[in-house]
Amino acid sequence: MDHALSLELDPTTIAADPRVHDLSEVKQSGMAWVKSHVQEVNSWVERDGFALLRGLNIVSTNQFSTILETLFGERLSQYIYRSSPRTALNNNIYTTTEYHADQVILQHNENAYSNVWPMRMGFFCVIPATTGGCTPLADSREVYRHIPAELRDKFERLGVQYVRNYGDIDLPWQEVFQTESKTEVEHYCQQNEIEFTWLDDKRLQTKQWRPAVMRHPKSGEKVWFNQAHLFHCSSLDNQLSAHMRDSIGSEFLPRNAFFGDGSEISDQDIAMINQVYRDLTFAYPWQKNDILLLDNMLFTHGREAYTGTRKVLVGMAKIASA
């Protein structure tokens, strides 16, 4: 927790940050202001990779979804092929990942383990935590540049193979794919280049190869865009003992990540990647009614541990694929 708090930018730094837009003097409702400033707000995100809108008057979840649809210029996307538990609200607004308050959620680009992902994300702080609970950010371009060259080149050459076993410890396949139908699961996998194996009537295993590095479609810059560090078995240490890891076997853990050729990624490699993220991560303390707009390829996000009640919502759009 001490480390998480150290990520927070101080008030003086925040006040001088051009990516934080203080709109507390706006007399209109948040919805009315956004409707008259769509181009301007989108230009902020395109220029900086994210924009924090602070001080707008927003009164409901429905208003938040309307604000996002107005800015994104389309309906929000349904969240299928999930990797974490969350609750769906109205109009494809979701709670952020519902892990215990004492757990840290590592930095990640949403759905970077998939061949489809949102280019735009919007977060809305309904209730800030008593302490902690920030949504830290890191620049994916800088992460790419700071990964040691030998390791970065190996990932870039081989890509990542994600292996998931749904059920007892991880999410059930019914929640991940948002269906009770095995046929629908199989169709989704076939359409999205996911290998699948039914281990028995209830257990499903999937494998998917994805690149570790992508180019941003507008800027052409290389970004570190994968979730190898989140899926890797070393990230399960707070859930599974070493004995359980060994007895289950690396292929049958709830989730695991390998190099694209199937070879193992060492714990040391993952530790190095996580250190790069720690070195580059920064955070703004949430305030009630804050909206954080994010280019999901340019910036990662995560969650600090926290105390008290915390409620942050998210919506996604502009689906990209490769």
UniProtKB/TrEMBL annotation:
Keywords recorded for this protein, A-Z: Antibiotic biosynthesis, Oxidoreductase
TauD/TfdA-like domain location: 35-316
SUPFAM superfamilies for this protein: Clavaminate synthase-like
InterPro entries with a match to the protein in the record: AlphaKG_dependent_hydroxylases (IPR050411), TauD-like_sf (IPR042098), TauD/TfdA-like (IPR003819)
Molecular function as annotated in GO: 2-oxoglutarate-dependent dioxygenase activity
Species this chain originates from: Pseudoalteromonas peptidolytica F12-50-A1
Protein name in UniProt: TauD/TfdA-like domain-containing protein
Pfam families on file: TauD
Coiled coil: none
Entry cofactors: Fe(2+)
Gene Ontology BP terms: antibiotic biosynthetic process
Repeat keyword on record: no
